Each structure stands twice: as structure tokens, then as C-alpha cells.
Fold these 2 entries.
Entry 1:
Amino acid sequence: MFIIFRFSSRKKRSAKMLSTLGKSATRLASSKKAAVESSSFVMNLFRGKSVTEQVFPYPLRLDAERKETLGMVMGPLEKMLQDVNNVTKNDETSDIPKAVLDQFAELGTFGVLVPPELEGSGFNNSQLARVAEIVGAYDLGFGVVMGAHQSIGYKGILIEGTEAQKQKYLPDLATGRKFAAFALTEPTTGSDASSVRSRAVLSDDGKHYVLNGGKIWISNGGFADVFTVFAQTPIKQADGSTKDKMSAFIVERAFGGITSGPQEKKMGIKGSNTTEVHFENVKIPVENLLGKEGEGFKVAMNILNNGRFGIPAACTGAMKHCIQKTVDHVTTRVQFGKKISEFGNVQEKLIDMVAKCYATESIVYMLSANMDAGIKEYQLEAAIGKVFASENAWNVCDDAIQLHGGMGFMRETGLERVLRDLRIFRIFEGANDVLRLFIALTGAQHAGKHLAQQASSGVGGMLGLAMARVTGGPATGSNFDSVVDSSLKDSANLLDGQIKLFGQTVQNLLIKHKKGIIDRQYELVRVANSAIDIYSSISVLSRATYAIKNKSTSADFERDVANYYITKALRNSQLSLEQAGKGVENATTVSTIESLAKQIYSNGGSPLQHPVEL
Amino acid sequence: MFVFLSPSLSLFSSFFLCLINIKMRILVGVKRVVDYAVKIRVKPDKTGVITEGVQHSMNPFDEIALEEAVKLKEKKLATEVVAFSFGGPKSAEVLRTALAKGADKAIHVTVSDAEAAKAEPLHVAQALQKIVEQEKFDAVFVGKQAIDDDASQTAPLLAGLLDWPQALYASKVEDGGAGSLKVTREIDGGLDTIKVKLPAVLSADLRLNEPRYATLPNIMKAKKKPLKAIAAKELGIDLTPQTSVLEVAEPAQRKAGGFVADVSELIAKLKEKGLVKA
């Protein structure tokens, strides 16, 4: 009765719409049909299990040498961001001068993860996160130049490239002698990454691919020397026919046939260069194929997953900047005869900002540390980090502006620029809405396979499932009693309850909708929201426990922030799960939404009559 | 490799050396201090300031001294720049920063953290003296003062101990010819230009130069440069303090001011406080 849903099957419409998600989800759960065990906390969350080996103890471990090297470069980096880079001017002129980029290149900020043998700085992800945080606090536009270059631009060469490709390209790229860009997006290819139309066809002599096509909104597109380009290539199938499949290429501007459009006019991150890039009969040597032919989608997803944590890191820095400005303002601004910092509503807003920042930071370094530890399965955690951080940063900046009153709206204060800069973070590198569906569907698929396996294991398995439903689900298997500090026990208990409810809710949805779950966006989004609340809560729980155990000077503060945050987040989670679980009510709401939307579309706009009837 | 200047050189060779300028080995003293951007907090027992869990960095004036030495090396006026630090185990960090900023070697004269907290400029000067005597330097550069204790004594004490000329508060350093340096000093009312014969002790003032940044590639390269540690005791330095700290206290908090409507109210208030005569 339980069906493993596969996205590529009958439902053509949704299958096409969600082909990106489906392919990544299918790939994640491995090609085998059998259910696989996972060590990822979020993956197991979908089965109502609390698997905390990647979460407790807080995994951040920078050895003394890495810490010292990081400490040595942080000061110079901050000074250069203050003295050499001019964020206001970058925003006004929509440019970051090459001379400025050159100075940062000298500092080593363009080759942070590249090994020293290839002229890089040899940092790990946790060190890079700290660097990205500092950059994010000063200039998000500059952060995008940096990220487009190394987090995605040449990341493919670093993680998927052959030894020869690394030797050839990384030294120039790590030192900023050359710049890189990531070229995936096309006019008809947004969130649905596999639908690119650019094509690369092998030449008759088999020595070159000839690339034609156009890319849009390419960060660093105007000046990059090396592009990671995704294009369709005709692949011979087993039955002799050919089929277009996406492949990835390293393309040099020097190959010829590449033109860049003018700098786009954007809402924010104006200092970063964004252009169209066109390829006309570009001859790419076959050795510049990145990864295997036809596996470009996998390469793209690996790059994006691997680079994704840079966004939460930069957003954390931006939040800290907003919080500091707000503290400075509210503790000096006097209204109604007292400093506005004394008003309860101001305090509540500030503490919410601080709690959101704390939770985001906790996720950033948990994620980076797990990546540094060699853990490969962090796609869901990375996706949650990106969604969570970009939305928190937006809200924190918005609150900072609100607490500044009219001053916040003025350019001079600098917060309006941060808000404009932050807006794109909810859209690019995986739109948050699509990432929510990715999180919910990937997790649900994992849970679905296990459910199917259990159900197919005979009467006993069926009975177990039925029993579990009657008794409110099996225990989560959490070990919170032994790993969480006792002062956070109440929060841990709340969390355990939510993990259990989450597993039950997902199971019920799977039983009810089977593979039709793919179309239940109303429920999926709420499931994803709850997953975000739960994962951020457990990150906070782990981080605060770590601080208390290590007698951090801010341990008491962290304990209180943690309890405050978790209580609030899990209240939201409870609400999301309740909404997701209400079958009958949801059916009514969803059909109302559908019907209203249809009326608007068929009318070509809102059909509302104006109250003055004019 | 360095050219050692000695009075026994023939007239010809000293003339020749004048043409190719001086060739110095420079020892630069760098101190690990609480970072200038950190808000200093006094310990509850008033015996000092809180240093645990606080960002530390190289004393900014020492950074300037180091930069000048490295620049002289780049101008081929110096052959080798050796960084020196006297302090607890973590002083090695500022030495590695110095190596990343261009020093060739580093010498760490080690003491315990407890001893470092009580060390005085004389102890540091004595350690510098021992190192100079052991390794034959032609000049010692230090910052004019450290931003933690503001003592400003290490350079003059060292000049005294070595019986070398001193050029303190340098704001410009040039080749003075014939084995000397021409040093400009900012003094009240103008500039003072002096010529000091090498070997000499020099202390760096704020406007001498703008120190370079330690870049990541150089930080990585610096890991391979030699850093030698010697215990202060091995050098035979008596660390007995000559002063004792009675109390460290926060500056008095400024009281908030008030607004006055006009000049007459201002005068009335000032009279009230006895700040102007009635």
C-alpha cells in the first residue's frame, strides 16, 4: 500500500516543474530503490528519529594553528574593508574598482579554500565562514564578488576538477590574477536548473566542444576570465539514440566567442558585477569538460551545496552589524523623557534580533565543522541554513531600521543599503521557496522509502506501524538527557516532542497522499518550516551546551538566549505541523486558494470591484 | 649575509661602503598587547585588566618599527630583519605575524604568563641587550611606547645598557651616509633632524609609516621561517620587579550634561557651580 514516489513518473506537469528538485532528491537517496540509513539529523527527522551524532557535541573544532592563522588575517581584513573598500561608493557607482579587488587579492581572500601548494590560503570551511562573516558585515556586494568567484565560480574545479585542471587554473584564480564566474542561469532556466538551452557539441575531430548559448545574471560576468558553464550535450544512449544531457565545462574568455552585456541595474549588491554572458561558437578543448559528460547536473548541485554555507555566514555578519548599530542607537536616543532602550517593546525586538543571529551563527559553524569533518550528506542542513539565514537577516535588518525610526530610512545611516543588499539572498543560489520544497520532498522521500520497507516486511511491520499510530508514534530515540546541559532540559524536552510530532505528521501525509505528496505544496511548505525551526533549535541547544561546558564568558547569556529562542521556534513549529496535519481543513483552504487564483488568472488581473464603484 | 662595518676598514673600502650605503642587521622588538579596538575592562580585584578571552595583537607602534625595518631591507639598506618578543607563550603569535609582515627570523624570550604580567621595561631592555650581544645587530628598532603600559622606557634603557646612541620618536628615517642614519623627530614646535652613528637604538613614532597588512599567502609562508625560543632565565635576567601595582581603576564615568536655553542661563549655571566668579 505504500508507494515509493518517484518524481519522473506519470504526473508530467509537476514532474517537469519540479525536475530540479526531483533529480536532486532522487540522486540524494541514491539510485538504489532500497531505503538507506543516514546520519544526517534532518534526514532522520523525517522519520521521527533523533539521530544526533552530527549535532552533539557541538562539532566546531579549530586547532590552535588554524585559529591563530585566522586571527592573524581577521584584523587586516577588517581594516581593509574599512579603509580600502568604500561600500557607500560601491553602491553609488555600481562598481568595485579593480585596484580594490587587487588589494584584497593580495590579502589572500580570493583563494581561501585552495591548498597552499596551488597558491591558496589553505583554509577550511570553518575558517572561511569566519572570513565571510566579516565581509558580510561590511559589504555584501563585495561578498557576492568573493562568493561568485570562489564559492561557486571555481568551486567546481576545486571539488570536481582533474589534477591537471587544478594545476592549470587554481593558482591564477586563488591569487586573483584571474577571476571566475558560475554560468548556469538562462532566460528560461531559473530554479529548474536542468532545463538549460545552451548546447555544446563535440567537433568532428573530437578535440573540441563547440558551445553556443546565452546566460543571464552572471555575477562577475563582465570581468571573469574563467567560467564554469553548464550546457546540454548530445549523449548516445544504450539503444543507439541520442539524448541531450547537461554537462559542465571550464571555459576561458581567451577561447574567443564570449561577449558580456552591460552591468545590470539592480536593487542591491550593486558593487557586484552582474551581466549577461553570450557564447558564440566557443571552442572548448575536450580536456576542459568538468566531471563526466552528461553529469553536469550533479556537478552543479555539488557546487551549490558545497558553496551554500557562505551565504548564512555572510548573513550572520550582516545581522551583527545591524544589531550593533541598533544597540548604539537605542541606548542614546531619548524619547518621552527616557532612552528608548528602556521600553519593553524595543527590548523585545532587540532580543529577537539577537536570538535569530545566535541561531543562524550556531547553524553556520555546525555546518562548516561537519563539512570539515568530511561528512558528505549535508544537503538538507545547508539548504535550511540558506533559507533560515537569508530570512533572519532580512527581518533583523528590517527591525534595525524600525528601531532607528526615521533615521533608519535615511541613506546616511546605511541600513537601507543593507536591506536592499539582503533582498537577493532569499532569491539566488536556490530560491527559498524552491529550497523549502527541496527540503520537504527530499526528507519525505527518505522517510517514504523506510515506510515502504517496513510495510512490505510482512504483517509484523504493518502491525508495528498501526500500533505506532495509535500510541502516538514510537520514541525518537533521542539522547538529550546525556548530551544537553541540565539548564536546557525543558527546551530539550520540548524539542523531543516536536521531533516525534514531525515524524508522525510526515508519516500521515505520506500514507494519505502517497506519491501525490509532490503536489501538496501547502503542506510541504509547512513541513519545511517546522524542519527549519527544529534544526535551528537543536543547533542552538548544542551550541549553548558547548558554551556552558567550556565555561565561556557568555555561557549564562547563551543559556537564556537558547531557552528563549527554542521556546519561540518550537511554538512556531507546533503551529506549522498542526496546519500541515489538518487534512479536511486544508482541503477547503487549498481549494479556495486554487479557485481564487484561477479567477484572477482568467480575468487577467484582480476581479475586485472598487468600493466607490469608479 | 651582512657587511660588518669596522673602524679598521681601509679608507678606500669605507668610501666604497658609503657608495653602496649601509648594510644593517636590524633587531625589532614587538610586544603582544590587548588589541587597540578592545574595550578595556578592569579586573574586579583591581590588580590589572582582564586579558583572558580578549583579542590581542602586535603593539601598533612596534608594527611601525617593524615596517620601517622591512622597508629598509626592501631598499637594500638592511640585510636581515629579526623580530624579538619578550613574553608568555602566546607572544609567539605576534612573532609569527612579524614573520608574515616581512621579518626573516624571530626570537622569543620566554617567561611565564604570570612573570610577563609583572615584567618591566628594564627586563625587556636587558633581554634585548643579551640578544644584541649574542647575535651582533647593528640597530634595534622598537615602538616609542606600548599601548598597554605606555611606559616609553625600553628604547632609552636599552641605549643606556648598550652604550649606543639613540634616535627616539622617529618620524622619518633615511640613510645618513658613512654608517649613520638621518632621523627626523616630531617635537613641540617643529621637526628635529639628527644623525646617529650605527649601531643605534631607534624608536618609532606614529607617522613614520603605514604598516602593511599580514596577507594570507605571507602568513602561510611565514610558518616555514625560523622562530627560536630562549627562556629569560637562560639569558640570566633577574625578573624581580622594581615597582608594584597598588591599584588599577576604571576612569571616572562622565556625568551626562544638560541643555541650557540661552547664554544667560549658561552663565547662571556656571556661577551656581562656582566655575565663574559671581
Entry 2:
Amino acid sequence: MANPRELSLKGKIGAYSVLTLFTIFAIYPVLRVFSISLRPGDRLLTKSLAIIPDGANFNAYISLFTEEPFLIWLRNSLLISIVVTIVGVSLATTAGYAFSRFKFPGKSSAMIAIMTTQMFPVSILLLPLFILLINLRLYDSFLGLIIAYSATALPFTIWQMKGYYDTIPYSLEEAAMIDGASRTYTFYKVILPLALPALAITALFSFMTAYSEYLVAVVLIQNTDYFTLPLGLKSFQSSMEASWGLYSAGAIIVSLPVVILFIFLSRWLISGLTLGSVKG
Amino acid sequence: MASGSKFNSTTRLAYLFLLPAFLVMGLVVFYPFVYNVVVSFSNMNLTHFRDWEITGFGNYLQVFADNSFWYFFFKTVLWTVLNLVFHVGIGVFLALILNKNIKGKSIYRTLLILPWAVPQYITALTWRGMFNAEYGAVNLFLNDLFGIEIAWLSSEWGAFTACLITNIWLGFPFMMVIALGGLQSIPDSLYEAADIDGASPWQKFRQITLPMLKPVMVPAIVLGVIWTFNNFNVVWLVSNGGEPSETTHILVSWVYRAAFFYYRMGYAAAFSMIIFLILFIFSWRFILKTGATENVYG
């Protein structure tokens, strides 16, 4: 037997058929949504399985922007997600650094506490936040939603940053500090630039968490002027027969940028996820 | 300066770096959590929203006395186990194939992680449309291929299966990617040595691949269990809030119903605590048993 990665002919046929089957399973729902978004308004309900429907057009996309408040939802979502991302990145980069580089009392209990929050069912924080935001008169406001989102991605991103810092050799900081640089200066000028890939992942992850969040938003937001994209797209569903095309067009527009970014950055995301567990 | 004060300044700096994150987490995670604990011992509900008082363990007893708790607990465990079996099974299987010499490997890999990249609520709403009995793609295919139609969303176990298929779709890429990372770190020389010893493919899988994958997969499985056990989005959005007639729930969607539709705050807070404790106990037992702690802390 030669190369352990080489497959026999039979093995190859099997491998490619399995891969193709699962690839179809993975991409079909996306193709289906795209197909429905192109359907003409009077033919939304057909039993056709064609990917490019008869009489395909972009009317659903056009009316999404001209007749529906899609741009308002988009603006709201972007505004909230960008603020949450800025907050999340600043917090995760610093906290991750402390966990990676310093020994201090309470370090392992702090890490366990952070990990434990991942086990919270969403209601355990949402219910008290709901009550508190009502009492603070921040219910039904952007600020309330931003507050609620600000820590959602933190446990994961702090972990992620710590794992990445761990791979940067400590000698770099020592060299800078021998040259007289302060610890804080070293962090900003030496380590942070080196951690740029991890920073990008943290930013993307924080952004996507806020941009795709439905459940907290549906509890904390009532006013349709403050609707985010998930609330808006869900509202099409209540009249699914009539709005199936609008929903599909919206879903494509909303997903496309994040899907492309995600796939582009996935290589780093994966290394970040496995860094902590794979040694050597 | 003595070394003692140097240690102190380092510690102070460490706390300074941690401070922003812990302030925010304290405000929106730890404080609400403590508040939730307090509410769970109180009689807070729609009629006692501002004038609530501490009433003791009543809410906890009420949860355990409730048949629906045990019913949805059973369903949640079934849901988590089935999902994890399919996620890990499909994920590891595809990773094993992708780890071979395959033409177009990166194209397959990219297309296969697509489900992970799509926002979860869009996945759920889209699959709900595909499970539509009359116009949904799933029944149209089943009808063309086998001449059958299934009442996906209008029967209890049909809706459960619909949620399950949706969640398998969005969850297998994560496990595939983690497993692939683990497989790539196994040196080929191990398999070559096994070949010399005349090991069968199954023996190689059992003796080399599985033990080498374990340290990577165990933390991923713990995370997967936690995410799946608490996966509100898929269950809620595919079943449109528990349809048919409040049967399609897992614990977390059921407690959401109690909190935000019936405003039984004290009851819901106690219920949330119980869900958390179940996961907490499970996770630590699992982590301790499989000796994964050192890997988690890397």
C-alpha cells in the first residue's frame, strides 16, 4: 500500500457520489429560495421545481426596495450591528489578551464563568433584561437592543482571541519591552497588528450575531419603525402566500454578503476554533 | 523595586485589560442572571408585575409537577441526541472523504459549509416554506419520486422531523470542518506503519483515526450539545411557535412561551434555571469523564 490518502477506483466512485449527494443537499435550499425570488407575482404558487421559473423577473427585488420598508430595516440592522461589533471587538481583544498573557488570581474561575454563560438558555437573560429595560424605559429602543446584544458574542470571541494570542511568540513582546516599550504600547503596536486575522473573525462573528438575531429583537422591539431585518423578513411570513417572493428576494439580499464573507474568512475561523484543542 | 511590586503591577494591568469586558458582562449577563435567580423564587406574573414578593421554591416544584415539563424534556433529549448523531456522523464521514486525494476538494468544501454561513432564521423560514404540504419542494420531490406526500407541519412528529432535518442541514458543516482540522493533524506515517503491520481499514479507523480525532471532537460535541439543546430559532420558526397546537417545542421554546405569551415570570425564571442546571451538570460530567478539560483550556 502506498499513499494512505489515495483511493481505489471503487473508493473514488463512492467518494465522489457521496460528496455530490451532500453538496446537492447543502445548496438546494439556497437555489430554491433564489428560484422563488425570480417568480412572477401571479405565479408564486406553482408546483414547479424548475430552478429558473417561467417568466423569471426581478420584480420582487424592485418592490422590496420601492414598496416595502426594506431599506429602513437594513439601516436599523446595520446601525445596531456596527455598534455591537465595535463594542465587541474592543472588549474581546483586550480580555483575550489578559487571558493569554497574564497570570492573575481568579483567572481560571473567570474563564470557567465565561464558558458557563454559553449554557444559559436564552430566556435566562432575556426575561430579566426585558423586565429591567421596561423599568429603565429602554424597552422598544435601539439602545436597549444594543445593550442586550453587546455581550452575546463575547464568550466565544474572547476565547477565540485568547487562542490566537497564544500562538504569537512571547519573545516578540519581550523584545519590544527590552527596547523600552510599555506593555500597553506593545499590545497596540506589536500584538494587535499580528492578530489581525483573529480580529477580522471576531468582528465578523460579532456582526453576524447581531445582524442575524431574531429572538431577542422580537421581544424587545414592537415599533415597526425600529424593526431589524429578521423581524422584517419574518413579517412577510404571516402572509406567506402573497409575500413568498418578497421574502425570498429579501433572504437572498440579506444572506449574500454574509455568506460570501463567511466562506472567505472560514479558513481562519476554523483555525481559531481548533487552535485551542489541537496541539502542535 | 522588589519583585513583589512588579507582580502587583502586572496583576493590576491584567485586571485593567479585563475590566471593560467584565463591566459589560456584569451588566448584561451576570446581573440579569442573579435577577433571574431572584425572580425564580418570586410570584412575579402579569398581575404581580411591580408588587411581587419572594415566595420560595413554589415555582420549581410547579415545574417538576407539570407533565409538559417531562414531556418536553424527553423531546429535547431526543432532539439533541438525534441531531448530534447526524451532525457528527455526517460531519466525520464527509471529513474522512475530503481528507483523501480528491479533485476539486476546495470547491466541495466551500459548497458544503454553505449551510453554516446562512443566517439561522433564514434557514428556518426557508425550510418551513419547503415543508409546505402543497407547494413545498420536499413534498413535490417525494411525490415525483415515490408518489407520497407527508403532512410535515400539521402533525406532531412530522413537524418534529421537519425541525430535525432543518437543523441537521445547518449543523453538519461545523462538525465536518472541526473533524477535517483534526484529521489533517494526524501524520500519514501512522497509517503507513499500520499498513506494514497488516492492519485492516477498520482497525486503522478504530486504533488511529478515532483516538486522534477525540481531543478535537469532544469539545466540539460539548458545544454542539449545548447549542442544540438550546436551539430556539429552528424549532420556533420552523414550527411557527409550536404548531400544531403547542406540541412542537423543546424546553427553551416552551419556557419562552410561558414567559412572553403568558407572562408567568416567576415560573419561567425557575424553568430557565432548571434548563441551565441540566446543561451545566451534563457538560461538566461529560468534560470530566472524557478528560477534555486540558484541551478546552489549551
